[in-house]
Amino acid sequence: MTIELPVTVTSAACCIGDTCAPLTRAPITPGGAEDLSVLLKALADPMRLRLVSMIAAHEGGEACVCDLTEPLGLTQPTVSHHLKVLADAGYLTRTKRGTWAYYALVPGALDSVAALLRTV
Q1: Which of 26, 34, 54, 98 could anchor a disulfide with 13, C-beta 3.0 to 4.6 Å?
Q2: Pairwise CA distance, residues 21 & 28, whole Å
Q3: By the 8 A CB rule, do 76 and 113 touch?
Q4: What residue ranges do the domains of the chain occupy?
Q5: Whole-model pTM?
Q6: 25-47 per-position pLDDT tens digit
Q7: How are strands ordered across the β-sheet holding 92-97?
Q8: Where are the beta strands (DSSP E) in 1-120?
Q9: What kind of fold does domain 30-117 have according to CATH?
Q10: Is the separation of the CB atoms in 106 and 91 below 8 Å?
């Protein structure tokens, strides 16, 4: 199953999925720039970058919120907020097990954004 980032873009110069063209091939539309900036802002926070890295490197490729608070030195509500931002941007999936939420990186999510930033 392929999960695409939730972006609606009106230009072929910026899209998510198999038909992406790098930003250097054609000018991005104002709407496309706005959509892409939301995705990039979600990753632009140092704690969120650490969370993505920690989750991807965690055993089984997923981590519980309870596994992330201590290494980051943050409270559970703060970690949960950062995880929600990443999940809303389409980078993480969330599954609930009992009282805990487990997060995993969406396959290809980072590749989709990276493809837009390529120069060729």
Answers
A1: 26
A2: 10
A3: no
A4: 30-117
A5: 0.76
A6: 778 888 888 888 888 999 999 99
A7: 62-64, 100-105, 92-97
A8: 62-64, 92-97, 100-105
A9: Arc Repressor Mutant, subunit A (1.10.10)
A10: yes
